[in-house]
Structure formats: structure tokens, C-alpha cells
Amino acid sequence: MTVFNIRTVRLQSGEQFRDVKEVDLEPLELGGQRYVPIPESPEAALTLTRLTSGLMLELEFDVRLLGPCVRCLADAGLDVTVNDRQYQATSPDGDEELRTPYLQDDRLDLSAWARDAVALALPDQILCRPDCAGLCPECGRDLNVEPHEHEDEGGDERWAKLAELRDKLSS
User: Fold this and answer.
1) pTM to 2 decimals?
2) Which of 9, 19, 59, 144 is least enclosed, having the fewest CB within 10 Å?
């Protein structure tokens, strides 16, 4: 876990502090699947800006996530660019919108912030390629490797009488 003590930075209103920190990232679990960040400790640009009303925190980094495609379960890689901001008011007076959850007792939890920022930057689905066909719902084969269709087997015979009635009514 990477933590930064903001007490070590003394800023006056309008001043800014910039530094590059290695941030430890744990693998993400999404939809029961595990996605591993590469590198596991990316270098992140941390910027602190003292405002008259509080502190603006910025975190920027790039990371690649490796894990299974949600459609065909083949290996998928996704480049993620994170550019996130958080605000901490000097006197938040109990208003949760004016405080960041990553800052407790002057200790900024960079790992938790980076993990959440990566999760928010992800698309709805992680795919091996944009046109992934997925797996066949009948036999489970990969449709990207082996595109095929199954012949209709006529359906459930319990519905046969209703199908006959439908055919009589439509003719």
C-alpha cells in the first residue's frame, strides 16, 4: 500500500507541489474475473495545489490491465489512462462532497485512490478485440476461431400442436 504524508508538504494559498511516486496497485476483480495491472507499481504524477478553501489533489498515470475477455474468455489487454482529481476542503463541516475519502489524518492513500480511478476509467466490457464474436451458446466453441451456426432442431415438441394451429390460422 502506497501512502503519502501531506504534512511533509507545506504550501501557501496558490502554491503547487508536484512529484512522481510509484503506486502499488493490486489486481482488480470485476465480474468474478481477475485483471492484473502491468506494471504492478506504475509511476504516477501527484500534484497538490493549495487553494484558499482547501486542497486540490491530482493523480495521473498509465497502466495496462491483463485478464480475460468478457465474451470469449481469451486473453485481453487494455491500456488505461488515469487523470483523476480529488478535493479536500479546509473546513468540510460534515459535507461528504467537500472531502476526499482517500485522505485520513494527513495521510493520502495513493493505492486506494489509484485502484478506484482505474476502475472508473474502464469501459463497460473488457474485450480481446472490438468485434469479438464470443462463445457459441449451443456448444461453447469460440466463434472467433470457428464461426458456425447450428441447425434449428425444430424446438420443443410440446409446442407442436400450437405451431400447427398457428400455421392453419396464418394460411
Assistant:
1) 0.78
2) 19
